[in-house]
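User: Could you check the structure of this?
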Amino acid sequence: MRTTTKKMAKTYSNYPDAARKAARRALRHKEKNGTSCGTPIGWRRASQISSGSPLTLDVVKRTFSFLSRAGVYNQGKFTDDKGKDICGSIMYAAWGGSSMKSWCSGVINKAERAAEDDAEKRHVMAVQETEESIYITLQKAPGFGGVQQDPLSNPSGPNADFIAKPEPRPGITEGPKGGGEGNSEPMEEEQREPSMSEIERRHIEVTENTEVRLADEGRTVEGYAAVFGQPTMIGAVEEVVQHGAFDDRLNDDVVALFNHDQNMPLARSYNGQGTLELKVDEHGLFYSFKLGNQSYAKDLAESIKRGDVRGSSFGFIVREDDYEKKEDGSYRRTIKRVARIADISPVVSPAYPQTSVKMRDMIAALEAEKEIEATPENETPPTLAPKRKQAEALLSIHHHNSPKK
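Assistant: Sure, the predicted structure tokens are below.
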């Protein structure tokens, strides 16, 4: 009689303390005031999160899905001016709030990459087994002859061209590491290819030094796509680009566009070569390119001459940034390192820069941390890390969505 053992599902319980505290706040509100908000499932989830209970990947995914939908209803307080419950805020906190959402996203991304790596490894092993089986079969075939050899360790027999050692596949090691099993560790977050949805765009303030201009008898466009230390206001957040932010980024695949329109390419730089020249000086990121014969290139030249196009904008993905709260209560974001320069663009008028999802999550996490720390609790709260490190822990995917190159 065969006995089968059911494999236990992997669970996760290392979610942020801020998520547990948010859930406890919602539970205390319910216990003290009573509320008609939420469902039995929602309050059961609050109990799980507040107590630090292990969650399966399916539960993590459902939690992330709920928080993604419910975030728009969160007003940051449990009652309105009339003392009426704000259900969206209560249940958003009950499920762990912004810190739980960010943590869930990180867990899901890592699990998906690990599953992809495992599938790749199984595929390589299957190919190797199939090729070895074919080789052994051919060894036994009439007229093949020769001494039977392992085709993977010595592919030099009469059918070497037919039985070739497979090339290593991305993310899979060729063999044992350190005498143990093959390395099936999932890719580090920084090695992941960034998605287009992560690109942010900024228009720099037009000054005498940054204005787009024509050179070389009107055939060359040049200007600064970014300026170090120059503040840009994004809503209530003041943003600056730090010296060194573009280190090692001049070999990126960068395209020059007119008004960020992908249908109007003007020049391109790849591995430091091409029709677009990029360089970094003490002032910022400088660009230069010769105009082609496209009709829109001629239109751009005319618009620059007339003064209709004066400013520049650039698209980028952040690798490392920092937030600090100013004395007036607003935030200052410092972009320390860029993971990728996506494009630069002479523009007719600046598009109002929108606050990115990551920026909103970080500020929400910092505000939630302050609120949670100020909330009296019966139990002694755990020792908190410094503010920045705590915020990084709350937003596990904040800095690491981009690869090192």
